[in-house]
């Protein structure tokens, strides 16, 4: 009887160990690519916290924020631009400037098209 109990215990233990080692989630290449893009997107935002940006818009209309970002990129192609959510508003931040002087210089050019633009430092 002890041998039977011991065998049952042994098989139960092996079954638990085998279940712990298998991953119940099947991740395919498309999911991995989406996760990488999401991480890249959020990573860019988090690393951008050490930079000065120029804010073009803040408000609750995401479509307007996206439109402003698109129009900005037409005027200044290749410039960093992001629609950021800071409760309760969307914000359009452009540029990544390591110091306030370079942000001020860019702001002068940007204000020709966006007169209400101003410098922000998100880490403050």
Number of strands: 4
User: Strand sequence of the main sheet, in spatial order?
Assistant: 2-3-1-4
What percentage of amino acids are in beta strands?
15-25%
CATH superfamily of the domain at 49-124: Sporulation related repeat
Number of continuous helical runs: 4
| CATH topology call of the domain at 49-124 | Alpha-Beta Plaits
Question: H/E element string?
Answer: HHEHEEHE
Radius of gyration: 26 Å
End-to-end Cα distance, whole Å, is 71 Å
Biggest sheet statistics = 4 strands, antiparallel
Work out the helicity level.
Answer: 40-55%
- As residue ranges, the low-confidence spans are 16-24
Main CATH class of the domain at 49-124:
Alpha Beta
How would you sum up the global shape?
Answer: elongated
Structural class by helix and strand composition: alpha+beta
Write down the overall mean pLDDT: 78
Describe the protein.
- A four-stranded antiparallel beta sheet has the order 2-3-1-4.
- With 124 residues, it is of the alpha+beta class.
- The protein is 52% helix and 21% strand.
- The chain contains four helices and four strands, in the order ααβαββαβ.
- Residues 16-24 have low confidence and may be disordered.
- The protein has a domain at 49-124: Sporulation related repeat (Alpha-Beta Plaits, 2-Layer Sandwich), CATH 3.30.70.
- β2 (81-86) and β3 (89-97) form a beta hairpin.
């Amino acid at each position: 009887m002890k041998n039977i109990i011991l065998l049952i215990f042994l098989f139960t233990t092996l079954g638990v160990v085998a279940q712990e080692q298998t991953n119940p989630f099947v991740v395919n290449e498309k999911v991995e690519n989406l996760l990488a893009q999401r991480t890249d997107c959020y990573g860019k935002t988090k690393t951008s916290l050490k930079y000065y940006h120029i804010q073009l818009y803040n408000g609750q209309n995401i479509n307007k924020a996206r439109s402003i970002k698109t129009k900005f990129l037409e005027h200044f192609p290749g410039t960093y631009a992001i629609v950021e959510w800071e409760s309760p508003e969307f914000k359009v931040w452009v540029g990544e400037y390591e110091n306030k002087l370079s942000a001020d210089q860019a702001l002068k050019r940007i204000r020709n098209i966006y007169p209400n633009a101003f410098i922000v430092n998100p880490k403050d």
